[in-house]
Amino acid sequence: MSDEYLGLSPLVDRVASLAELFRAGGLSRLRIERGDDVVELRKSSVQEVPSRPAAPPQEPAAVERDRITADLVGIFRMGRPQPQVGETLVADRELGAIEALGIRTPVRSLGPGKIVAIAAADGQPVEYGQTLFEIERG
Question: Is residue 59 part of a domain?
Fold first, then answer.
């Protein structure tokens, strides 16, 4: 059975053209509503840093960065007290939570360290695998 027979081809073409516009057109947010269904896409707030020319090899740093990522899709909520860049964590701590389908799932630091980056804002929709925090360990 072909996609055209199932009536999917026009829909697939529309979604593909929207995705291309989103990717190439500089859009930062796209919201599609149909009845009670809502789909919202946002570009990540974490910007990629352009690569630099290769530098001479150096000894690896003793400090490692751990990325705390979203385990599910939902709305991110900061913890209380609100975590701050530069804050030193003595032990495991709840940094925030993700709300999805009426369920609140905690986001934890997974041990001691220093918060070096916060990549999500309170109330921001997040996707599975999106970086929320970067923590220096060591």
Answer: no
| Domain match, 68 and 133 both | yes
Q: Nearest CA to 97 among 125, 78, 72, 121?
A: 78
* Rounded-to-10 torsion of CA 12, 13, 19, 24: 160
DSSP state of 4: H
- The boundaries of the domain holding residue 21 are 3-42
Structure tokens, 114: 């220093």
pLDDT digits (tens, 9 = 90+) for 67-81: 999 989 999 999 888
Helix (H) or strand (E) holding 12: helix 9-24
Q: Is the peptide bond prior to 10 cis by the omega test (within 30 degrees of 0)?
A: no
User: Structure pTM?
Assistant: 0.52
